[in-house]
# Entry
Amino acid sequence: MYTVLIIFGVIVILIIFLGLIAPKSYQVSRSIELDHPPEQVWGHLKFLKKQQEWSPWARKDPNMKITFTGVDGEIGAISHWNGNKEVGEGEQEITRIIEGERIEQDLRFLKPYKSQSDCYMNLDALDGNRSKVTWGFTGKNKFPMSIMMLFMSMDKMVGKDFEQGLQNLKANLNK
# Structure
């Protein structure tokens, strides 16, 4: 019995220690430079329906059910999706717009697990008729998920999807 208590105590101390050192937040972003003026790119970022045209997750599940509420391209507009195991279920809501420069969204995942992230897209004008798009998101790792993040990387899990989405955006703009 004494051995069991010692093992249990060591496990509890280990979990507390891992919880203390585990990352409490995450941030993932990717950028791409485009040979298109910001005015041409902005419409592909601002509108939720246009985002679906280049979203890497929409391509992972072509049968995904998507519904839109509110006025697309305005604060409060919501895109709700329900798809296969790869894309899950969730919604994104436009929360802030700096016209022609930045759009912010509340990204809420409902399945396979609940979580919330803050998503953003920045649009910067470069020299000539070129633009730079930065797409990213940030969030908090809650206990006990934070312990799992010691062994997993949100950047590695989502970064490739962001890169693919930005490449899809570039391809759409080049059509």
